[in-house]
Write a structure and sequence with these properties.
Layout (H helix, E strand, L loop, with lengths): L13 E5 L5 E5 L15 H22 L20 E7 L3 H10 L2 E5 L8 H9 L10 H5 L9 H10 L13 E5 L7 E4 L31 H5 L13 H14 L6 E2 L2 E8 L4 H5 L8 H4 L4 H7 L4 E8 L5 E13 L6 E2 L12 E2 L2 H9 L10 E4 L3 H12 L4 E4 L20 H12 L2 H4 L6 E4 L2 E7 L3 E6 L4 E5 L2 E4 L3 E2 L42 E3 L9 H28 L7
Parallel strand pairs: 3-6, 3-10, 6-7, 10-21, 12-19, 13-14, 13-19, 14-15
Antiparallel strand pairs: 1-2, 4-5, 8-9, 9-10, 11-20, 16-17, 17-18
The structure holds flavin-adenine dinucleotide (FAD).
Length: 580
């Protein structure tokens, strides 16, 4: 038997969390007596709700077990012969992608607002055709046909234009959607993440301003402007601070009542199929009917059903630092792990030396500890993106000399600074101006505050705090530095999948990346084309901006709803047993 949640037994409301040598958490979850558990009831919606309640209680009891393992009695409450509880969908990652998916799975459904007129007349007339239906019940391919936007995923472009019509043309039209909570559409799910809800935003340098306007990063149903009003003294700036965004996402989960589905401090270490066989590969259509719905009576039936399921394993960190291992069975898995977990490396000699860092936070830490005060050697900053620019800004504001190294020419048209309007992003334009005007070729010697080295690369770092730079022509320069920051991007970390998930990318011979090699998905379901019942959204499928990840959440929910309907229909057609 796998470690962890199973045996959360079907047909009984006693929840059991077993860990190998630690605690068992048992809790009566719905108050019903054994034998009259509502998961056995004949109303499929009631059944699902009850299952949802049990999953929520599971999340609740695991959350409650944090730091309490020592006081919990050691108890084995597995019920032999009972099939384990299987979650219809487990979401890995609790950033904006995971949160938004949880929102839609919870039954919040988008409709065209009664008064709304979309500025695109073709799209508007299509929306009018089925105004009474939720967008989730409509043909997404038809609605998104012909739309253009800054995502290569059509459903992402569709929902972006419904939420922010014509925003890329400088308009500020209100969303044409209204969201209704329809609890009968709730799909039980669990969201697992390393930290608090908000994902990468809890790790992003808190003192900078975001690139996007605050409202572009809001999630449906809670206006960022309304939420921030009263929290901020300077209400003029439309750009937000990362810490405000992180706090907004955390709050969002509470306000929308999603908390019961979230389990924090969880680290997923493996996601694998329970069983694999020929039949699965040939006929991989997912029909997520739970064991409860199908009234599975014995283990062999259960084994047949779970053939296609996933086993999601990991551990939860407790407040005392210990790890509680667990395994969950899931019919579907959604990858919402973002792309910021593994900083990109130069692979230069000496990159592991202690003075070489890969996060702006390390610069801030060194500054706050006073390590860079007074007359110090320059800080080396590698990279020409916005994170490197943030580091330059941070050093500059603290009077720390900077050597800034990047591979492109300073006037390269692909540099991100060229795409940012000067009036909105004055701080980045200031850095860009320095990159162009304070180059080592212009000033010949090191500038006391900042010197750029365009078209250079780091050849090596030495243990005596020196770094060797090399120009495009092969010329070498050696500098004594006080710290190095390599800020050249980051990669997703899908180590928990077989082959680190490479097999699900567009190019299976290369690692998954947001821009070059995202997960290959069906454009209208976000299911991995090479791995049935595995979904991905957000930067993993190329949607790095929060504006665009909402489309993934809607497409996945729609896909699961349709499969569920199909399954229920098949049970009824097949002379069902009164379950559906
Ligand atoms: C410095 C910076 C500035 C940005 N500015 C903007 C901006 O202005 N506007 C904008 O739209 N976007 C911006 N972005 C991009 C934005 O942060 C991402 O698009 C967004 O956070 C993606 O959300 P996500 O939920 O998919 O992933 P994330 O926010 O990255 O969340 C994924 C979560 O999953 C967790 N996770 C990963 N692996 C595991 C595992 N094995 N087990 C458990 N949990 C796991 C991660 O730790 C993380 O907490 C910025 C990004 C950075 C780094």
């Amino acid at each position: 038997m796998p470690l962890g949640f199973p045996p959360l037994a079907v047909g009984c409301c006693r929840q059991t969390l077993v860990t190998p040598a630690t605690a068992v958490v048992g809790a009566d979850t719905c108050g019903s007596r054994e034998g009259v558990c509502p998961v056995r009831c004949s109303d499929p919606n009631r059944g699902l709700e009850s299952e949802g309640q049990r999953l929520s209680s599971l999340a609740f009891s695991l959350n409650n077990s944090l730091g309490r393992t020592e006081t919990m009695p050691l108890e084995e409450t597995a019920l032999p012969g009972e099939p384990p509880l299987t979650v219809p969908i487990v979401i890995i990652g609790n950033g904006p992608s995971g949160i938004c998916l949880s929102y839609v799975l919870s039954g919040y459904r988008p409709y065209l607002s009664p008064e709304a007129v979309h500025p695109n007349p073709i799209l508007h007339s299509k929306l009018e055709e089925a105004r009474h239906l939720s967008i989730l019940d409509q043909d997404l391919e038809y609605l998104s046909e012909g739309l253009e936007g800054r995502s290569s995923n059509p459903v992402a472009v569709l929902f972006d234009t419904l939420l922010h019509p014509n925003v890329d043309f400088g308009y500020n039209y209100p969303s044409v959607l209204q969201w209704k909570l329809e609890q009968q559409h709730y799909i039980p799910h669990i969201v697992l993440g390393k930290g608090p809800p908000g994902g990468a935003w809890h790790a992003i340098d808190g003192s900078m301003l975001t690139i996007s306007l605050g409202e572009w990063m809001e999630l449906p149903g809670l206006k960022f402007k309304d939420w921030i009003a009263g929290k901020r003294r300077n209400k003029k700036c439309d750009r937000a601070m990362p810490e405000e965004i992180a706090s907004y996402y955390k709050q969002y989960v509470k306000v929308m009542g999603l908390q019961r589905n979230f389990i924090e401090n969880t680290y997923i270490t493996s996601v694998s199929r329970l069983y694999r066989d020929q039949e699965e590969d040939e006929n991989h259509e997912n029909e997520f009917a739970s064991a409860q719905e199908l009234q599975i009576e014995n283990e062999s039936e259960w084994a047949a059903l779970t053939k296609r399921n996933w086993e999601v394993c990991g551990y939860q960190k407790t407040t005392d630092g210990s790890h509680i291992p667990f395994c969950i069975f899931a019919e579907n898995v959604a990858l919402a792990t973002g792309t910021f977990d593994s900083p990109a490396r130069l692979e230069a000699e000496g990159e592991d030396l202690p003075f070489v860092h890969h996060s702006v936070r390390d610069l801030e830490g060194a500054i706050s500890k006073g390590k860079l005060s007074g007359k110090v050697d320059p800080v080396l900053i590698v990279g020409a993106g916005l994170t490197a620019a943030d580091a330059v800004l941070c050093a500059y504001n603290n009077n720390i000399p900077v050597i800034h190294v990047f591979r492109k020419k300073a006037n390269d048209p692909s540099l991100i600074f060229k795409q940012l309007p000067k009036t909105l992003y004055p701080e980045y334009h200031k850095i860009y101006h320095m990159m162009c005007t304070q180059s080592h070729t212009v000033i010949c010697t090191l500038h006391p505050v900042y010197t750029s080295f365009p078209e250079h690369r780091v050849l090596s770092f030495k243990s005596d705090m020196k770094c060797v730079l090399q120009s495009a022509s092969g010329l070498k320069n050696v500098f004594k530095i006080s710290m190095a920051l390599v800020l050249i991007g980051s990669h997703p970390n899908l180590f928990f999948l077989k082959e680190q998930g490479q097999s699900i990318g567009h190019n299976p011979s290369r690692p998954i990346t947001c821009k070059g090699n995202p997960v290959e998905i069906n454009a209208y379901t976000y299911e991995a084309t090479k791995e049935p019942n595995l979904f991905a959204l957000g930067p993993l499928v190329g949607d790095n901006f929060i504006r665009f990840l909402k489309g993934g959440a809607l497409a996945i929910t729609r896909c699961l709803e349709m499969r569920q309907k199909k399954k229920k229909h098949a049970i009824v057609e097949g002379g069902g047993d009164g379950v559906a």
